[in-house]
């Protein structure tokens, strides 16, 4: 039974707040184990990587075999069906086209005082992309992480993907190829993150690490943060659907279940102005759920976190959406553009009945790496900007320094930083001498 | 004696690597103490804030007195001299003008398949700015944090500033006023960060926390990260100056000392192609240092971390600069623009002899909150973007779904996510029925 709330009930706010603050993730404390693995990789390098891979992935490697050879990659890719290849190629092209538009522009201007100011964007030199192994080894995630990096102009892109018992998903290697990544290592877990951050004899260190992973990978990313940049630490996925009465309940039920099948900790929420639709959707979920291969996972998610909310009107729905700050927001209403303007905290918005969230996971173009757990209040999905950094630039003419320098001297004095003031004053004095002589 | 290196020496690379990896910060482990303070504020709210402020700042407050009243603010501001006020006003205006140009644009376009795609930027709703008390209570930092937030459109801006023994820096309150911040609390330390992140009866929680602070503040920001967004955790400041022979050694010495006077852990580095200049600068530092009020701090920094490097040419200097990835980079050479193009990892670049780094701390316009400790390899200074987040938007027509949906179904199948595929397939089937009928 999903959580069912009605904004007209007296105890709605208590129930809504309780739903919002539900803890959906068991964060086992793996920090000590992860710290030991990182220390081991730093101390013993490739040797540690091989031993840890033998232990965790049941795969015996020598340092020379850590990296996939071009022949190995091609042999795996050859196993991909033409249909899968075509679908992945279309996804890659659409993701590339979307992200190409995100490239920010440099700027430079000269102000009336004579100061030339601006900024310049440059890519990180090297980025490492973590790809989980086994069941959650998603080729779509390879595209979503690697293509923005490529668009940003990152020179060296590295993938680490564990291959338990030596098994790799050929589509992951094809996705890497489509994104132009050739440096791929068959390692995973905290040891892969340690290798990317600190480097070994075989694997040169990178500057930024992105990509999803289990609790060990997430803890390792947190621990190496500062030494390298990392993307967000993603929590369980979530969708919020806002729907009016006349919509197809089966479609909405499927969209809720698509979210729920990711993970027993995922959350699917429907807010509707129509109790009849809520009832119909709940019925459709119950009918469809047993037919799904991942019925157990989706069922647990729906049972524990699934939520149906009856709202008075769409304005109220938008206000609740802003309190939820969902990762994915579907607006299945007559005028989704108007409603979208009122929904200001969301990772991604999907407008109208023909934009199911699942197309966004694969082929619509925007990134599917999005802020979870209410963090859309203050953060954004993965983008080209995550692989760029901005350098600010200033050049003063002597005249500009004469115009604004005295204020700097004054403020340096007020802050008790005499050398700051003196560094400006010394220049101003020479300028004064010159203009006086 | 500063570290002195010459790229022509056989052991240069070892020395340079050793200099790069010097640990400049004693990070005392305050995590346990900070966690207890955060728990206390979450459990007891305002009462905990008052008790902790009495203990750490020797200031007895009631919950009603946590916030500065408008009269208290005006009374403090009235003490500011006209000269200081004019200087701070100029700084605020120039910082605002620079950051106004950073506002990114929304985008929306329709592709040939009929998918309307784009993104929209929105501000965080509420941001909290931490301002250190006592000696490091810098009005310039208030401007550098608050003005980008204002430019971004953040509706609610809050400042927390500890006032040990009840003393506040009037310039900090004036800077807050110039930036349009009226909600100011006289609390500091981990307790202030806890209040901003979790809220109390008196202080509503915020979505993002920025601003510098001591080890307790930094640890608290790390611990509340995820619940709220935070800016970078800044390390000790650093400057790299690249200079050719004909430059004024006194100016360079003053710029090195301006960095050194911040903190005994700060680092000042000169790379020059001219050994004579290096010698003259070292002499000027020795001559000027004893005249500084902060000679002890600047002297310790210069002694422990100051570095002089003789390079063969400017290309080599640029390569070394990219390995250092300095927070501040001064290019005191004949053609600084050309050299700047080769320096791709730096927080801020100052071009030419009349752009001392100190003008950038106060009045040139770009932000002075910049990536330290080599993190300019992968991160940027504070900007308007830190107070915005991006929501991606997609709307498919039925025709667009018919064109790209089958690829999503295919990939969902390959990833074993059947409900994902079914959510698209159900729509495609209805479209097919319609077009068939």
TrEMBL record, chains A, B:
Cofactor note: Binds 1 zinc ion per subunit.
Organism: Paracoccus zhejiangensis
Annotated metabolic or biological route of this protein: Amino-acid biosynthesis; L-histidine biosynthesis; L-histidine from 5-phospho-alpha-D-ribose 1-diphosphate: step 9/9
Reactions catalysed, as given in the entry: L-histidinol + 2 NAD(+) + H2O = L-histidine + 2 NADH + 3 H(+)
Function of the protein: Catalyzes the sequential NAD-dependent oxidations of L-histidinol to L-histidinaldehyde and then to L-histidine.
Name of the protein described by the UniProt record: Histidinol dehydrogenase
Binding-site positions, NAD(+): 130, 191, 214
Record EC number: 1.1.1.23
Binding site for substrate: 237, 259, 262, 328, 361, 415, 420
Family: Belongs to the histidinol dehydrogenase family.
Enzyme class: oxidoreductase
UniProt cross-references to HAMAP family, sorted A to Z: HisD
UniProt GO molecular function: histidinol dehydrogenase activity; NAD binding; zinc ion binding
């Amino acid at each position: 039974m999903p959580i069912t709330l009605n904004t007209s009930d007296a105890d709605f706010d208590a129930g809504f707040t309780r739903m919002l603050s539900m803890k959906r993730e068991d964060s086992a404390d793996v920090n000590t184990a992860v710290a030991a693995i990182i220390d081991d990789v730093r101390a013993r390098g490739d040797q540690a990587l091989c031993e840890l891979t033998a232990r965790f992935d049941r795969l015996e490697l020598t340092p020379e075999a850590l990296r996939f050879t071009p022949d190995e990659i091609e042999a795996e890719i050859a196993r991909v069906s033409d249909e899968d290849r075509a679908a992945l190629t279309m996804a890659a092209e659409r993701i590339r086209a979307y992200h190409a538009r995100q490239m920010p522009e440099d700027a430079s201007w000269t102000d009336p005082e004579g100061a030339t100011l601006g900024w310049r964007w440059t890519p990180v030199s090297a980025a490492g992309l973590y790809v989980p192994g086994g069941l959650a080894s998603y080729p779509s995630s390879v595209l979503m992480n690697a293509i923005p990096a490529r668009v940003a102009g990152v020179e060296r892109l590295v993938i680490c993907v564990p291959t338990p018992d030596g098994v790799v998903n050929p589509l992951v290697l094809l996705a890497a190829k489509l994104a132009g990544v050739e440096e791929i290592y068959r390692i995973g877990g905290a040891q892969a993150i340690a290798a990317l951050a600190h480097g070994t004899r075989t694997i040169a260190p990178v500057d930024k690490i992105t990509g999803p992973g289990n609790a060990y990978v997430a803890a390792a990313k947190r621990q190496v943060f500062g030494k390298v940049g990392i993307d967000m630490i993603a929590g369980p996925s979530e969708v919020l659907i806002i729907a009016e009465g006349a919509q197809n309940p089966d479609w909405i039920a499927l969209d809720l279940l698509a979210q729920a099948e990711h993970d027993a900790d995922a959350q699917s929420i429907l807010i509707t102005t129509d109790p009849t639709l809520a009832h119909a959707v709940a019925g459709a979920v119950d009918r469809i759920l047993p037919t799904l291969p991942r019925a157990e996972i989706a069922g647990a998610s729906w049972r524990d976190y699934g939520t149906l909310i009856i709202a008075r009107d769409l304005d109220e729905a938008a206000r609740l959406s802003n309190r939820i700050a969902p990762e994915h927001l579907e607006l299945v209403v007559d005028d989704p553009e108007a409603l979208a303007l009122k929904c200001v905290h969301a990772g991604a918005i999907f407008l109208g009945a023909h934009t199911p969230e699942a197309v966004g996971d694969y082929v619509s173009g925007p990134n599917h790496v999005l802020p979870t757990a209410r963090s859309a209040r203050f953060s954004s999905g993965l983008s080209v900007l995550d692989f760029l950094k901005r350098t600010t630039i200033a050049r003063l003419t002597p005249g500009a320094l004469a115009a604004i320098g005295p204020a700097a001297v004054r403020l340096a004095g007020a802050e008790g930083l005499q050398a700051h003031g003196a560094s400006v004053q010394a220049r101003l004095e020479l300028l004064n001498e010159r203009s006086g002589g």
